[in-house]
Amino acid sequence: MMKEVIIEHLDIKNMLSSSNKFYIIDLGCSIGPNTFNSMQHVVQVVKDKYHDNILEFQVFFNDHVNNDFNTLFRSLPVDRSYYASGVPGSFHGRLFPLRSIHVAHCSSAIHWLSKTPKELLDENSPSWNKGLIHYIGASNIEVMNAYVAQFEKDMEMFFNARAEEIVPGGMMVLISPQLSEHLLKFFGSSLMDLVNEGKLDESLVNSFNVPVYFPSIEDMTRVVEKNDCFSIERIELTHPKSKIVDEADAKTLMINLRAVLEGLFINHFGSKIAKEAFTRTILKSDEISAWMKINYKKACQLFIALKRK
Fold first, then answer.
1. Of 221, 254, 265, 274, which is least surrounded by CB within 10 A?
2. Pfam families per the record (predicted)?
3. What is the C-alpha separation between 9 and 233, in angstroms, rounded?
4. Positive or negative: CA dihedral 134, 136, 109, 112
5. Which DSSP category does 137 fall into?
6. Averaged confidence pLDDT in the chain
7. Which H or E run contains 35?
8. DSSP 3-state assignment of 304?
């Protein structure tokens, strides 16, 4: 899909003029190897489309300052066809000079909020999320509204920053997971099990909410149109092939989610409670597998391709 939108909608001749330097960013790169596959794919598609141009590619790998950039750079492919740089910082703000980027890519990162909505932690707020760690499972619509409001604020900053950084005619591809949100409730139930057994203070659960919001097509369309600096070239829910999902391997899936979430849990609950909660969640494999068998055929990934006006 990324190849198709680049071939159909990217016009390098109008962007580069006399320059032969092509700049690509991966926002939320983590430590590889997925980021290397994505960046090489973008480079190769552009090369294939403009084989008559002698282009030099610069790829900027971006993530938070606490990302393990040492591991990232030690893992760089030796046969890469681009120059590599690291850019630490939050993608909710400016990272690059004015009109300097030709293609931006962000996979499985845009759903992370810049912070937890503060209303969720206030006992006197209608959005107080007592006993839960996410909006999934919350009966109070105000909890969902707080997440949506924070998402829209973050996306306003995100698109304003990218609108300044991306050249006119440049492209941005965003990919966001969908079904992962429902799996968070299993981690939350493990924490409440510990509360009910007297091993964890409930106030610690009440003061913890995972800062992720999984946008729908309608959500993304709304924030893009509000910004009005990008045109939507393609947006749809897709169903990527995955051995983990196809085989309904709940244990493997939850171990992967643990790798993503463990730092948040340890920071808030401490390593002992975090370890116990994750161990208990993995033991819920049968319950999780039953849920996966019902839902694994649903489209579970949002793909959106944007062009800078």
1. 221
2. Methyltransf_7
3. 8
4. negative
5. T
6. 90
7. helix 34-49
8. strand
pLDDT at 303: 96
Residue 120 has pLDDT above 90, yes or no: yes
Cβ-in-10-Å burial (0-12, 13-18, 19+) of 160 comes to middle
Residues in contact with 203: Cβ distance below 8 Å, sequence separation at least 6, in sequence order: none
Single-letter residue type at 106: C
| 50 touches 16 (CB < 8 A) | no
Residue 277 to residues 84, 103, 136, 255, 263, Cα–Cα distance (Å): 38, 40, 18, 12, 13
Instruction: Please report which confidence band the pLDDT of residue 282 belongs to, taking 50, 70 and 90 as the band edges.
Output: confident
Residue 63: strand pairing partners: 88
Q: Are 289 and 281 in contact (CB under 8 A)?
A: no
Averaged pLDDT for residues 86-111 = 97
Helix, strand and coil percent figures for the chain, each rounded to 5: 45, 20, 35
Angle at Cα 59 formed by Cα 50 and Cα 177, nearest 5°?
A: 95
pTM comes to: 0.91
- Give residue 77's identity as a one-letter amino acid code: P
